[in-house]
Amino acid sequence: MALRTVGSVLVVFLWSVTVVLGQTGWSVTYTKKSFCTLNGSTVELSCSYTYPSVHTITTTFWFTKNDAAGPVSLSDDPDYKGRVTYRKDKENGHTLTITDLRESDSAEYKFRFKDQTGGWRYTGTPGVSVSVTGLQVKVTGRHQDKTLTCITTCTLTDNPTYIWYKNGHKVKEDTSSLYSDYFSDADSYSCAVKGREDLRTPAVYLQVKITTLLFSRWVTLNCGTCTLTDNPTYIWYRNGYKVKEDTSSLYSDYISDADSYSCAVKGHENLHSPAVCVRGQNCWSVTYPHQGVCALKGSSVDISSTYDSGYDTITSSLWFSPKHNASWSDKLIPEDLATDPGYAGRVEYAGEKESGRSTLRITDLREEDSAEYKFIFNTETSGWGYSFPGTTLTVTGLQVRIKDPTNIIEGKDLCLFCESICFLQDNLSYIWYKNRQRLIGHETKYLYLKPVSSEDTGRYSCAVANHEDLHSPEESLTVTYGQRNTSVSVSPSGEIVEGSSVTLTCSSYANPPVDKYTWYKKNVTSPKASGQSYSITNISSEDSGEYYCEAQNEVGAKISKLVPVNVLYKPKTTSISVSPSGEIVEGSSVTLTCISDANPPVDKYTWYKKNVTSPKASGQSYCITNIISEDRGEYYCEVENKYGRLNSSSVFVDVHSVFPWVPVVVVVVGAVLTAGALLVTIYCYMKRRSTGGSDATADTQSVHPDPNSETYTALNMKTRSSEYDTLVNVRGLPSDTAPQIDTELSDYEK
Ligand SMILES: *[C@@H]1O[C@H](CO)[C@@H](O)[C@H](O)[C@H]1NC(C)=O
Ligand SMILES: *[C@@H]1O[C@H](CO)[C@@H](O)[C@H](O)[C@H]1NC(C)=O
Ligand SMILES: *[C@@H]1O[C@H](CO)[C@@H](O)[C@H](O)[C@H]1NC(C)=O
Ligand SMILES: *[C@@H]1O[C@H](CO)[C@@H](O)[C@H](O)[C@H]1NC(C)=O
Ligand SMILES: *[C@@H]1O[C@H](CO)[C@@H](O)[C@H](O)[C@H]1NC(C)=O
Ligand SMILES: *[C@@H]1O[C@H](CO)[C@@H](O)[C@H](O)[C@H]1NC(C)=O
Ligand SMILES: *[C@@H]1O[C@H](CO)[C@@H](O)[C@H](O)[C@H]1NC(C)=O
Ligand SMILES: *[C@@H]1O[C@H](CO)[C@@H](O)[C@H](O)[C@H]1NC(C)=O
Predict the structure, then answer these.
(1) For ligand 2, mutation pick of 325, 328, 331, 368 (most atoms within 8 Å of CB)
(2) Can you name the CATH fold of 399-477?
(3) What is the pTM of this model?
(4) Ligand 4 test: best mutation among 485, 514, 558, most atoms within 8 Å of CB?
């Protein structure tokens, strides 16, 4: 059995019967003699043939039609162009494949072959019958009690499985071609055969048939919307009552003249279509000019509707809100809003009922009044349905909102806006307040602060024009900024004396406030301290210098100006320099200079000579002119500033006499002339030496005035005083040519 079933939709299956016709030895055997297959599918016909061995077969083909010259090979038939293939897959066998079958392909197909001379030819008759069928949905029964049949023009075999689709979705798969169910209007149905689902029937809308075949008042309505992507559910209203909810946009019904219809998409009921009269002009209707109304909390609102009851007389009408059904005595029967205690004194009906217009006015609106409001009327027999969407009221307060409220830094652009939860009106005029003061020149919903400055910090509220009393709550705006006016104050102010305590305080304005203070001293890289105040206790002269602080918050940091700290102290050290530094001979001059470290500098110098109680002099330098041997002695100075006094150690001033033999030589040379004068001179000289003191020749100054040497040995004073028993170090001052003798604390200093 070489037959290949195609798409498992093959129908009548007959076991092949070898047909031997005519001359002995010539025959065609068709593998399968009859096909019923689907429009669009593929069929394969195959056969084997025999012939007497004396012949050589050169031509084989399939055909259905003849022309003047005889049978036309399917491969040459324009109707089958591109859809036919021959295959000689085995000896004396032949297979024909026809693809993309059309109903016009239904025919008897025969195989024919010829020998090389063309004189001998044979056709296998009868041929293979091929029926091509489409699928169709047939509807039987009435109303909802219908049966659908998936029909074909020939009978499919192989127990085909039928698939049913409802609105494009597979709903049934069965070997029976029948489908019985509860069918709702406006659903579409289609069927297919398993394996060839692509060959499914066109969708059949059931009610279309019924409408055209059976019922004259049956009308199908289509809820037209723009294309909705997410398989919307449509809702139909008849006279205000919801009558259908379905994914199909079609609705069919028996129409009465007074009926009106409206449709909506579920979830967007407020955007329903207007109620339309299907026939005539005078059908029932309720129309709301607004689907939604936005109103300010505290204000009043008018919600209106127009209505028509056709030729029926209205017995009563009312407004209600489905939200408040809990307080109705029967939850299914709407009650007049005017009787609702929640609206007591706040509801009134306005408008002229005669002209078919009713207005519901609600005053002193509260947020809980946000609800849907519907108008219904009743006639003697029935009334307008209460499922029809009404007008949705949204009550909003105003609220000041700040765009990007986390990042309000001075200098940036900022926008505040007056927010309402619903859209109030296009051209509304707004009023802005800052700290309850009206801001002039800002009349839109948006308040721009470009750029925002720290002065904009404040409490803001907004209102709409003519409802100033219904302004929003206040919203605080805080503008952050970095450090400003960063400065240092010193406490106590005034003089800072060594040993006392001083506190430096850093002040800086910033918002948010400074969260970090750091203290620095000029020319010192590492911070000295942190914290807003920096206290230096027991201050010392080393603490003198210039200080500054750095203040920092998340917005930025800034440093203060330098603040000098000048630590005052009484004289700390004092010393005496002697000039000239060499040997001091009688008659020459010597200057003693008192050098001291004090802050403020010493303003009073007093010179003393040891064993002499009264001061010798005052002033920083003490100059002894025309020195005589009586001036020899230990000198010291007392320095004084306003914080104290200090005595230096003493320096010994030696005075050398002129050499005694020099005048003798002079006397010898002039002896002849002035013997008398010489004698007087010698006498006087000797007399003075005897009262002057010690031996001048023993004094040797061994000063090495090497300016590059830091230290050198100075006056050898071991013969002068026990206090100078050791060498005294003298330091050269680079700024001063005069050598200076450092004093050490001595008895004199007290
Ligand atoms: C057969 O298929 C073609 C294309 O697929 C379609 O146009 C035609 O209507 C079908 N015929 C029937 C009877 O279904
Ligand atoms: C009453 O109102 C609530 C809320 O609006 C609603 O969920 C409920 O279905 C209503 N009940 C009736 C009986 O209409
Ligand atoms: C706003 O515009 C409407 C119509 O565009 C107009 O009737 C109304 O007076 C305007 N209101 C104000 C406050 O300008
Ligand atoms: C900061 O300094 C400016 C001028 O330098 C002055 O006008 C302002 O008042 C100061 N601010 C404060 C808070 O001291
Ligand atoms: C501080 O540094 C500057 C420059 O580096 C220098 O001129 C100045 O003398 C220094 N001051 C002190 C007190 O060291
Ligand atoms: C103050 O400092 C000086 C020198 O640093 C020290 O000798 C003295 O004891 C200190 N006084 C106090 C009260 O700490
Ligand atoms: C100063 O007086 C003391 C005792 O009063 C004495 O020992 C010392 O030698 C005197 N010094 C001089 C230089 O006269
Ligand atoms: C310094 O010496 C003079 C004279 O001896 C004395 O009156 C004074 O009190 C001394 N000063 C100090 C600080 O010891």
Answers:
(1) 325
(2) Immunoglobulin-like (2.60.40)
(3) 0.50
(4) 485
